[in-house]
Amino acid sequence: MTYERFEDLPVWNAAIALAQAVFDLLDNRAFNGLGDLRNQLQRAALSISNNIAEGFERGTTSELLSFIYIARGSAGETRSALRFAAERPTLAHLKSQISNLISQCETVSRQLRGWAGSLQNSDIPGQRRMTDQSQAEYRQRKRSEEFLKNLDAYRGSRPPDPQYQSPSGEAK
User: What is the rounded CA–CA span in Å between residue 49 and residue 6?
Assistant: First the structure.
């Protein structure tokens, strides 16, 4: 699936949900007097979605990959700060909520790692580097691949036609 806007990306939405939940946690009075921790958690949590958005808008796959890795680093930073918070005696009553946020961080990080892996194996350099012609060729190639995949699935549901010959002339 191709996304037109970063707001449509599942990982961006997961990162926004994480940031909102972190901000909600930090509204708790127990974080009064922990200004540095509060500020660091806010910046790190918000940085995840912001870096996804910035990388998406940059226009090349290599730049997007760089920002995905920065976002992933921010997810790790958020998780680290949350682990620190979970061990603070004054925040013990929030341990379950903090643990849930750590799990959300791990989920976002896994999504980012998967996305980065798929981009690293991609043959597309990104929108900024593609001409109108290369974009049209890429879209056509993707449609052809999808058609062939569907055709293979269809063929798998019934015996092959002995009259069919592949483009290379082989009987199928």
Answer: 9
Neighbours of 36 (CB within 10 A): 8
Q: How many separate helices (H) and strands (E) can be counted in the chain?
A: 5, 0
pTM comes to 0.71
**Using an 8 Å Cβ cutoff, are 44 and 74 in contact?**
yes
CB atoms under 10 Å from CB of 164, counted, come to: 10
Per the structure block, which two tokens stand in for 133? 């012609």
Q: For the beta carbon of residue 83, count every other beta carbon within 10 angstroms.
A: 13
For the stretch 9-61, pLDDT in tens is: 999 999 999 999 999 999 999 998 888 999 999 999 999 999 999 999 987 88
Distance set, CA 125 to CA 71, 97, 112 (Å): 20, 41, 19
